[in-house]
Amino acid sequence: MGFLEGFARGMKGSKDDREILSMVNDEDDELLSSDYRKTGLQYSSSNNGWYKCVKCGKSFRKGDMDIDHIIPKSKGGTNSRYNLQCICKHCNRSKQDDTSDTSSDLKRRRKELKEQEKEDLKIMKIARKKSE
Questions:
Q1: Taken in order 116, 48, 66, 30, is the CA torsion positive or negative?
Q2: Is the pTM of this model over 0.85?
Q3: Which residue in 45, 3, 42, 53 sits closest to 25, CA to CA?
Q4: Contacts of 131 (CB under 8 A, 6+ apart)
Q5: Structural domain boundaries of the chain?
Q6: Could you report the per-residue pLDDT of 77-122, keeping only the tens digit for each?
Q7: Which of 27, 70, 127, 132 lies at 20 to 30 Å from 89 by C-alpha?
């Protein structure tokens, strides 16, 4: 049994958990992208070029951030935006391929991306109204 199958069986089996796993395993264009750093930064919020590490909470410039695979590549993780998080270099070296926070990290990431989508929709509505 692979890591993802074992992880899926170990989760409580709620609809949210199953939905998160299906998003991480989605077969779309970004999974084929080998530039996971670009994908990770593109879908992470920044405050005027400052990114916040999701582990320690400190803010860093883009060059001091790493993009971490929540489910490590060595354990079947993909380059999906749902599986990537901004993390400082120190925290990423400390985490290595630890999966103890995987479930909570995936849920947090899903929530972040949903909030970004809401903001994007809000901006699109405003732009549409202004163009009318």
A1: positive
A2: no
A3: 3
A4: none
A5: 3-127
A6: 888 889 999 999 999 999 988 889 999 999 999 999 999 888 888 8
A7: 27
